[in-house]
Amino acid sequence: MKRLFASVLALSSLTLLSACGDDDEKTPTPDGGTTATTQDVTANITGDTTWKAGTTYTLKNYVFVEQGTLTIEPGTTILGDQGSALVITREAKLNAVGTAQKPIVFTSSQAAGARAAGDWGGVVLLGKARINVAGGENTVEGFFATSGDVKTKYGGTDDTHDCGKLKYARIEFAGYELAEDNELNGLTTGACGTATDIDYVQVHKGADDGVEMFGGTAGLKHILISQPDDDGLDYDLGWRGKVQFLVVQQNATVGNRGIEASGNKNDNAAQPHSAPEIWNATFIGSGRAAGTTPAQEGLVFNTGAGGILRNVIVASFADKAIDVDGTASAALWNAATPELSVQGTLFWTNKGDTVSIPNAPNPKKDAAGTVTDPDVSKFVEAEKVLAAGLNNKVADPQLTAALNLDAPDFTPAAGSPALNPDNAATPGAGFDTSARFVGAVGPSNWLTGWTAFPKN
């Protein structure tokens, strides 16, 4: 489910030079002290700026960090009004590093109990790494392209570019649709490079995708995407990051895909291919009945997108477990050196199936709607994905409370096949090689203490 704002803020109104508005209020206390400060943020940031713990900052509109580094101290709360977002441009950096005890919280400015997905636009990081579009540069989704405006541009040639740090942070009730296929998400990155550090981040109840990666090479680690309105992790335009310890939990009302992987929809052969390497991930559907709306699918790869997935759980999706959609993505699986591969994965009760996984034919239709090819990709998921040698299985991972929306627990029970190292490969270079288990959570629960699951 996506919501459309009644009006769009003109970007030209965001060219003020100061970082914050004039509203800086402190409430007196009986002993002569003051309570926490509140401060409205109305203007763009053009130099090094620090947002202090103890002050609650409210984004009143699109706020662009044009130059310098925005530092956000542990425990700081940032509220977003409708029509607002925080955008770190290519010439700036974010340094938002919380702690497990004091996470940084980005959330709706509406009162608790009245908050909803799509209340504000979320966090956007833009960089200078490669993307697979003509000219190597693009305008990030969620904004209308404006001639001469570089604040919303991303892309370049520096695959090591540093968009900054975002650690121990929660992003809640964000994301919205500006126009069809032009949306902001909870967390949006465009062309961020390998020096970018995104770790211990939760995106909760976003109106579009939880996290979307537009090209680049930035990695993700210890990521929880809970109850997005659309897809959990969406990536396209040549994203090649490394991911480890990722949880996606959908809900029965609006959740769509655990992963939607795309290449370049205008050119399926565009290089570089979207092909991240993902270790230790858990994708949980809602457990609702198959055939209901919207369709709910685990892993979808289309338009020439790939991905190397290892030690993964895909469970409780109402419809497809995995869909290799179209000839371009199927070719990446069938290549001599595959750029699309799934190994060491446990599938369970997808479309209610406890024996196999459902096939996902991709029919081709003519202009009149007549099916001219019942399966253009010729990719039989049940055969290909469960083939000998891949160590993929249909087995109950025995997760403690993965379907619970109020207090989920993705830890496998004692004796779970997810904890059997024979079912898991040893993670490769650049990953935590001690994670010899299937799924995002092993014997210890890295989600404890800093995550939250508010309904509204």
From TrEMBL:
InterPro entries listed in its UniProt record: Pectin_lyase_fold/virulence
Alphabetic keyword roster: Signal
Lineage: superkingdom: Bacteria
Endpoints of the signal sequence: 1-21
UniProt-recorded name of the protein: T9SS C-terminal target domain-containing protein
Record organism: Corallococcus sicarius
